[in-house]
From TrEMBL:
Name of the protein in its database record: Aldehyde dehydrogenase PuuC
Tree of life domain: Bacteria
InterPro entries the UniProt entry points to: Ald_DH/histidinol_DH, Ald_DH_C, Ald_DH_CS_CYS, Ald_DH_CS_GLU, Ald_DH_N, Aldehyde_DH_dom
Active site, renumbered: E209
Gene name of this polypeptide: puuC_1
PROSITE patterns in UniProt: ALDEHYDE_DEHYDR_CYS (PS00070), ALDEHYDE_DEHYDR_GLU (PS00687)
Keyword Nucleotidyltransferase in record: no
Top EC category: oxidoreductase
Length: 439
């Protein structure tokens, strides 16, 4: 890791990329996007073998998303302008945007290529050098991405991928005195350690996306309750629930509670759990045994606290090996229950009824998280009010999941700070420099 950071620093300081013409950087990043598309199946399969995502979802969410992300920032990089300040006569105030230097990026195992690209593409487009540390259990697709970046013509040292345990390579990256910005997606516990490492080293800026406990609020006047049930099931159970924005808390208006839970459970039960390399699979594998055991412990604790199992709740043994779990629906969950307060990161849905708009907002905002949310209603005023009042970085209305790269993703409260995606992602990777000139 120390050698990788040193290589990134040399590459940044000598200007081989940081001072290269925008047209050149654009050409290289477009070439990388072409290579990602040309190698999409290999990249997807590498990821599936690592993290267990069902292949149908992986093709779109991993190489498909990554290629689009690199194209977006390749096109955007020469549209970022400085500013001329409206100052007094005889003074010229200029605001320059300059690359920050060496960016350290630590990404999780659930969508390594997609989330890695959210960090890499804007950082590289801005002219920075990057050292990327993948999760221990999902590094293959990002190692392949580094090979493709070299093939695309990215200069040596500009992108470095270093594998290893978080306690070794991750800590070394976060403690480095030569890393200027650290970006991270993962757990709150690790995020707190990264802030400590920043304080103990060079006070590097840290941007953290720390997961969520996202409420999906269904009103009786939803435009299509059957469609809402189907989409809500996919919104929690695809990728075995291992999605940071997963709608893991279902809040249902009391008057439709029973029928909606039945409809959602029916759609969930129809989803095929199995070999993630099988094109007919809807729900793939849990990433590792520790995660599976944690998921099952959440179910056990929920039952102890008074919840009931409406669907699932158990491990599924597969002849392919690996770790699989039934899509699980828990009803009768109260807002204070453990499963309603803490991120499971697995195929476990906590269902809670609500009586009014105010009740829904109070329950939705009753956790420490604030990453995403969903609202299902035909009432335009209600939709706007819920978007305004729910504490979340992303609020879906009459859908769940799917915002593309044109809009930012970030959280509030203990879901983190800073934004991935859209032009706002550049904010993390540029420094502002003022030039104050007497004419």
């Amino acid at each position: 890791m120390d050698r990788a950071v040193a290589a990134a620093r040399r590459a940044f300081d000598d200007g081989r990329w940081s001072r290269a013409a925008p047209a050149y950087r654009k050409k290289v990043l477009h070439k990388l996007a072409d290579l990602i598309e040309a190698n999409a199946l290999e990249l997807a399969v590498l990821g599936v073998r690592d993290n267990g995502t069902e292949i149908g979802m992986a093709l779109k969410a991993e190489p498909g998303s990554a290629a689009g992300t690199f194209r977006y920032y390749a096109e955007a990089l020469d549209k970022v302008y400085g500013e001329i300040a409206p100052t007094a006569p005889g003074i010229l105030g200029l605001v320059h945007k300059e690359p920050v230097g060496v960016v350290g990026a630590i990404v999780p195992w659930n969508f390594p290529l997609m989330i890695g690209s959210w960090k890499l593409a804007p950082a590289l487009a801005a002219g920075n050098s990057v050292v990327l540390k993948p999760a221990e259990t999902a590094s293959l697709s990002l190692l392949k991405l580094a090979e493709l970046a070299a093939e695309a013509g990215l200069p040596d040292g500009v992108l470095n991928v270093v594998t290893g345990a978080g306690s070794v390579t991750g800590e070394a990256l976060a403690m480095s005195m030569d890393v200027d910005v650290l970006v991270f997606t993962g757990s709150g516990g690790v995020g707190r350690r990264l802030l400590e490492y920043s304080a103990r080293s060079n006070l590097k800026r840290c941007y953290l996306e720390l997961g969520g406990k996202s409420p999906n609020v269904v009103f009786a006047d939803a435009p299509d309750l059957e469609q809402a049930a189907k989409v809500s099931a996919a919104g929690i159970f695809r990728n075995a629930g291992q999605v940071c924005v997963a709608g893991s808390r279902l809040l249902v208006e009391e008057s439709i509670h029973d029928e909606f839970v039945e409809a959602l459970s029916r759609h969930a039960a129809a989803m095929k759990v199995g070999n993630p390399l099988d094109l007919t699979t809807n729900i793939g594998a849990v990433n590792n045994l520790t995660q599976l055991e944690g998921n099952l412990n959440f179910v056990t604790k929920a039952i102890e606290e008074g919840a009931e199992i409406a669907l699932g709740g158990s491990r599924i043994m597969q002849d392919t090996g690996g770790y699989f779990m039934e899509p699980t629906v828990l009803k009768g969950v109260k807002p204070e229950h453990n499963v309603a307060q803490n991120e499971v990161f697995g195929p476990v849905l906590a269902v809670t009824p609500f009586a009014s708009d105010e009740d829904a907002v109070a329950i939705a905002n009753s956790t420490k998280f604030g990453l995403a949310a969903g609202v299902w209603t035909s009432n335009l005023s209600r939709a706007h009010n819920m978007v305004r009042n729910i504490q979340a970085g992303v609020v879906h209305v009459n859908t769940y999941g799917g915002p593309d790269g044109t809009v930012p993703l970030g959280g509030v409260k203990q879901s983190g700070n800073g934004h991935d995606k859209s032009m706002h992602a550049f904010d993390k990777y540029f420094d502002l420099k003022t030039a104050w000139m007497q004419l």
